[in-house]
């Protein structure tokens, strides 16, 4: 029966790509045998895709999405044959790469390698959950299907090194080794021994024929009792069953053609005139997932009902975090670096929310992100990623998708470039993943231009559904967190290394509006707007201007993204139309031309010198700001 099931998947995938005249038929056809056998091992419930103790199945090669959708349809998820026929069409449940709006899709993997790191993240999250709730409540597996491209991307090895270090025995990676990439055979750019490399990382590794049902079955049974993460290297042929295109790189990213598909169907005993065909016996065998899932889910619900009252309350607080319980620290009249105030805030949140968890890419002492007294992974809240920013972001995305955690990840702002793909996917999925980025500007000083973030603020402000907060003092930092925790989106906190003077109370508006008046004149001629450390600079400049008889408004803008969402009436209130507007930011800051008449920003990569000297050298002094303002209103 396996062969008929696998061939059904193959031809559904080929038909989807052919009808759309777009897509990747090769990998799905090559993996059909593995997915068919794997479907009998998965512990999941298509009627309840969010069941907490389900096995997670991650398709790292998101381009093989026709395989994902065929599997979901046959298993009984809310993906119909009509949805398969709408593959890659506008507003369909079957987009070109899987997105989490489709029931059964665990995570949007996107670029190659992300899914491998996501799978490691799910496996780590499962261990964290098991520590909190017990092995009777959390005991599922994490399966990941990946290919040559995934393992060539560096992120996969960043993540797998962590998997091996932590002996993630709940992780099973199935490597579709068809030795084909877009340009041809993998040998043109790759010659390493994957088995040896993964064994060195701490994995147990098996090699099988990816088209032998007995070998697939044996390997998956072996996976159930491992004490290490498990890599199954499955030797396959791309576009298996596709006649003359079997094994060819030409089958990777283009439709096979109606004639080849018809011949392939006929050779397999299928009617070549039928498209999107699923025989009743095939549907029956795949649909057994519904009965198995219902039963497993019901047995788990019974175990949950038998938990102690304390454990029940813990599970409820994990599923429904109560932000009102957070006792935020008080920073009134306190000069403090925002990385320091942020560290105290993180600890306050961790004390109130059992699902708040995170760590740094080997920079916790500098990022101030240690959760003091909360222990180390897997028995505590502090995650250590080593110097692996890219994997860190993808792992924390998986924590956010797991269902009970609110993760944060941290590094220097300049290294946010290493994890941008993960941040972008977090935004695409609207994940509550909090990015902590310190050493926010040329204030890094002596480390020089390689470590001074100049264009990064503009980069992340340009990203849809991503909120970048750059607080100007401790009090504002607290208010930023209060807003961020209630947003259904990832947020970044860009924090200073240097101490910042406390601000006065807002005169109009609040952090929730993205920007607010921190100083207001009765007859303003100029409005100065800034974020972070430059707010204090603008306040100093405003005094010099007032001494010259010039009325000044000062706006603190901790979140440019929220500001852009405000009504025009609010914008006109904080940026008085009769004034000239000068934006001041120690970054490229080109986005400020949306509101400002002029921008004092960075036009180079910075330099190596003490921070105070750099601010002065690049024009970020109260005197220079005041002089620019005077020139603007002449």
From TrEMBL:
Annotated positions binding substrate: 24, 252, 339, 366, 439, 447, 451, 497
Any one GO molecular-function label of the UniProt entry: transketolase activity
Record Pfam families: Transket_pyr, Transketolase_C_1, Transketolase_N
Catalytic activity entry: D-sedoheptulose 7-phosphate + D-glyceraldehyde 3-phosphate = aldehydo-D-ribose 5-phosphate + D-xylulose 5-phosphate
Annotated site (Important for catalytic activity): 24, 252
SUPFAM superfamilies on file: Thiamin diphosphate-binding fold (THDP-binding), TK C-terminal domain-like
Gene Ontology CC: one annotated term: cytosol
Keyword tags: Calcium, Magnesium, Metal-binding, Thiamine pyrophosphate, Transferase
Self-association and partners: Homodimer.
Binding site for Mg(2+): 148, 178, 180
Protein role: Catalyzes the transfer of a two-carbon ketol group from a ketose donor to an aldose acceptor, via a covalent intermediate with the cofactor thiamine pyrophosphate.
Organism: Campylobacter devanensis
Record-stated family: Belongs to the transketolase family.
Residue positions binding thiamine diphosphate: 63, 110-112, 149, 178, 252, 415
GO biological process terms on file: pentose-phosphate shunt
Gene label: tkt
InterPro entries: THDP-binding, Transketo_C/PFOR_II, Transketolase-like_C_2, Transketolase-like_Pyr-bd, Transketolase_bac-like, Transketolase_BS, Transketolase_CS, Transketolase_fam
Cofactor(s) annotated in UniProt: Mn(2+); Ca(2+); Co(2+); Mg(2+)
CDD domains, alphabetized: TPP_PYR_DXS_TK_like, TPP_TK
Domain of life of the native organism: Bacteria
Active site: 389 (proton donor)
Name of the protein: Transketolase
EC class: transferase
EC number: 2.2.1.1
Details of cofactor binding: Binds 1 Mg(2+) ion per subunit. Can also utilize other divalent metal cations, such as Ca(2+), Mn(2+) and Co(2+). Binds 1 thiamine pyrophosphate per subunit. During the reaction, the substrate forms a covalent intermediate with the cofactor.
């Amino acid at each position: 029966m396996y062969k008929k099931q696998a061939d059904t998947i193959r031809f559904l995938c080929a038909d989807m790509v052919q009808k759309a005249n777009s897509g990747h038929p090769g990998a799905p056809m090559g993996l059909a045998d593995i997915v068919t056998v794997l479907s009998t091992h998965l512990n999941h419930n298509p009627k309840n895709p969010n069941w907490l103790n389900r096995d997670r199945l991650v398709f790292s090669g998101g381009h093989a999405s026709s395989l994902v959708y065929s599997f979901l349809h046959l298993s009984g998820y809310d993906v119909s044959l009509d949805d398969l026929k709408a593959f890659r069409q506008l507003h369909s449940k079957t987009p070109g790469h899987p997105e989490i709006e489709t029931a059964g899709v665990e995570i949007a993997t996107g670029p190659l390698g992300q899914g491998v790191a996501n799978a490691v993240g799910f496996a780590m999250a499962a261990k964290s959950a098991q520590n909190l709730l017990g092995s009777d409540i959390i005991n599922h597996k994490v399966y990941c299907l990946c290919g040559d491209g995934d393992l060539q991307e560096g992120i996969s090895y960043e993540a797998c090194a962590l998997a091996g270090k932590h002996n993630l025995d709940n992780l099973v990676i199935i490597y579709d080794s068809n030795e084909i990439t877009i340009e041809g055979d993998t040998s043109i750019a790759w010659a390493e021994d994957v088995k040896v490399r993964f064994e060195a990382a701490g994995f147990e590794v098996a090699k099988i024929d990816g088209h032998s049902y007995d070998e697939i079955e044996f390997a998956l049974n072996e996976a159930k009792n491992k004490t290490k993460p498990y890599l199954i290297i499955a030797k396959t042929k791309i576009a298996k069953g596709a006649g003359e295109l079997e094994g060819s790189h030409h089958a990777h990213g283009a439709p096979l053609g109606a004639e080849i598909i018809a011949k392939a169907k006929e050779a397999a005993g299928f009617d070549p005139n039928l498209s999107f065909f699923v025989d009743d016996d095939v549907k029956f065998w795949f649909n057994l997932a519904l009965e198995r899932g219902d039963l497993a889910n019901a047995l788990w619900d019974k175990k949950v009902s038998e938990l102690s009252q304390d454990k029940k309350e813990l599970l409820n607080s994990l599923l429904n975090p109560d932000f009102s319980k957070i006792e935020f620290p008080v920073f009134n009249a306190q000069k403090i670096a925002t990385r320091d105030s942020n560290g105290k805030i993180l600890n306050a949140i961790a004390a109130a929310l059992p699902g708040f968890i995170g760590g740094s890419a080997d920079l916790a002492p500098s990022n101030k992100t240690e959760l003091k007294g909360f222990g180390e992974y897997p028995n505590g809240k502090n995650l250590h990623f080593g110097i692996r920013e890219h994997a860190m972001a993808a792992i924390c995305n998986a924590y956010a998708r797991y269902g009970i955690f609110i993760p944060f990840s941290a590094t220097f702002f300049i290294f946010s470039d290493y994890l941008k793909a993960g941040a972008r996917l977090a935004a695409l999925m609207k994940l509550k993943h909090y990015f902590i980025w310190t050493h926010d500007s040329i204030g890094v000083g002596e480390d020089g231009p390689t470590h001074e973030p100049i264009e990064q603020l503009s980069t992340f402000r340009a990203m849809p559904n991503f909120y970048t907060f750059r607080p100007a003092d401790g009090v504002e930092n607290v208010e930023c967190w209060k807003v961020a925790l209630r947003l259904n989106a990832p947020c970044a906190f860009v924090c200073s290394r240097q101490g910042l003077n406390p601000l006065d109370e807002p005169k109009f508006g609040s952090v929730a509006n993205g920007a607010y008046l921190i100083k207001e004149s009765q007859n303003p001629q100029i409005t100065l707007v800034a974020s972070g450390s430059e707010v204090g600079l603008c306040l100093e400049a405003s005094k010099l201007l007032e001494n010259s008889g010039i009325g000044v408004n000062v706006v603190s803008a901790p979140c440019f993204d929220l500001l852009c969402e405000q009504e025009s009436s609010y914008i006109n209130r904080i940026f008085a139309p009769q004034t000239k507007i000068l934006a001041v930011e120690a970054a490229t800051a080109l986005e400020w031309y949306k509101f400002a008449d002029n921008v004092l920003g960075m036009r180079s990569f910075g330099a190596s010198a003490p921070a105070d000297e750099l601010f002065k050298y690049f024009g970020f002094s109260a005197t220079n700001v005041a002089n620019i303002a005077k020139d603007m209103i002449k």
